[in-house]
Amino acid sequence: MFESSLGLFVEYLQVTNKPLSENLAEKAKKLMSSAGHQKTSLPDPAIASELKAQPGKITWMESMSQSADFAVGNLVAAAFDCLSSCAMKQNQTRINLWKTFIVNRLPLIIQEHLSDIPSSTFEYSLRRPLLSVDENALAIVNAKVANDIDVIFSEPTTPYDVRHEFLKSMAQLGLIDLAAADRILGGNNSSLQDEFDGEEPLHGEEVIASLLEMDSYEFETVIRQFVTDVATAGCVRQGAAVDVMVELLSIWSAQRETYKLRLLSQEIAVSTEVMNIMLLYRDPYEILRPLITCLDVWSYEDESMIDFQDNYTDFGLILLLICSFYYHFHLDLGEIASLNGNSFCMKYLTSSGVAHPIESLGQESSDLLGGWIMGLFDTNGISDDMMRSCSPMDYSLLVPTVVQQSVAACNKNFMDIDTLKGGLEYFLQPFLLSSVLGALHWLTHELWTLREIDVPLQILQALIIPQFLSDEARPIHKIVLRIGALSVYNVTQEILRKATQLPDTINFNGIMDTLTPHLQFRKEL
C-alpha cells in the first residue's frame, strides 16, 4: 500500500515539480532499503544528513507510521524547521515567538498528548530532530536570544542553546531525566541541574487572591513586574501566569474594577511579546469576551463619580487592548460579532476613522459635537458637565467628526492653525489619548484623497511628535502609535513620492523615524 501510494505521488510530482519528484524518489528508495520497510526505524545517519536541509520532503512519508515516538520526532522537527526558516529570514519577532513556543509550549503539548511514552523512547525520538537542526540557523537564533539576555541582565551569559532550553523544559515536566540532555547534545549538564532546581511552580489561585486583595497604591508596581516576568518565565510558570492574567481580566471586567483593569490592560498592550505569549496558551476571543462586555455596559452617569477623566482613561486603555489584539493578530470581525454583534466594539472597529456628515447626525449627536469643539478650542476647556453628558463610547465614535470639522474650520479661516493645534493637544492628555487612534485613522484616510494637505499634516505631526507628553501619557501614546503607525507611514511615504513641493512646516523625517519602530506590529505575524 505504501509503495503504491508513493509511486502515484511521485508520478504526480513529475508533472508539477520534476526535480522534487526525482529527489524524493531517490531518497525514498534509500530510506526504505535501509529501514527494511519497518515503520519504527530511523533512517541511516548518512541519509538523515543528506535530508537535513529539507526535512519536510519526507515528513509525509514518516507520517504513515502511527507510532507515538515518530509523532514526537516529527512535531519537534517541524517546530525547529519553522524556527530555522525565521532565522534565515532574520525575522526577530518570529524568532522570539517560535523560540518561546519550542521552549515553553511544545513540552506542555507533548506532556498533554504523548506523556505515556517511556523516557528512553523520548530520548531516542528527540535525538534525530535536535541534531538535525540547521547549524547556520541555530547559530543565528542562539546569538539573537543570547544578546537579548545580555541586554536584560547587563552582563555576559553562558552560551545559549535553544535545544538545551527545550530539553530543560522536558526535564522539568518529568518527560526525560536530566542525564538525557547530556546524552542527546553532549557537554556538561550541571548548569541544567542548577536551573532545574531553581524553578518553582506558580500557584495561580494564590496569586489571584493576593492581587484581588491588594490596594491600588501597591498594585501598580506589582502588576507591572508580574506582566514583565511572563516573558522570561519557564514552561511551568509561563502558562500559569497567562492563566492568571486572563482570569484577572475576566474578574475585574465582571466586577467593574476599572482602575486595576486599566493598569493590567496597559501593561499587556505595551508589550507585543507578552501578547504573543498569551496566544500560545489561550484563544484571543476568550481573552476579549469579558473586555467587550465590560465596555458595552460601561457606567458613566454615576452621581457619585468624582473624576470623569479617570473614567475616560480607564475606558480608553481597555479599548486600546482590544484594538491591539484585533490589529496585531488580524482577528476575524465575524468572530468578534459572534460575541456581541451590536456591541460598541464592533462599531468602533468598523468605523473608528469615519467622520459623519453634519446633516446625518441626530440632535443629541450634534449637541455633543458642538460641545466637544467648544471645549477643545474655548478658553474654558473641557468641563465635567461635558464629560458627564457624553459617554466614552459616544465620544470615541465622534472623534473623527470633531477632527474633520476642525480642519474644515481652519481651511475656511474660521480659526488659525495654532489655535487648531493647541485645541487638539487636549487629545494628548491621558484621559483622551486613546482617541488619537480614531484621529489618525481619519487623517490617514483623508490624506490619500485631499488636495489641501498642509493642515492635516500639521495635525498629524502634532499628534505623532508632540512637544510634550507626561510620564502617564507616554506608554498610552506608544500603544496608539503602534496600532496606527503602518497606515500613517504608508500614506506619508506616498506623499513624499508624489509631491512636487512639500510643506516646509512638516518634519517628514521626524514623522517617519518615530513610526518606523512600530511598523511590524500590524504585519509581523
Automatic annotation (TrEMBL):
Signal peptide: none annotated. Coiled coil: none annotated. It is found in: Nucleus. The keyword Iron-sulfur does not apply. Belongs to the Mediator complex subunit 5 family. Component of the Mediator complex. This is Mediator of RNA polymerase II transcription subunit 5. It comes from Lipomyces tetrasporus.
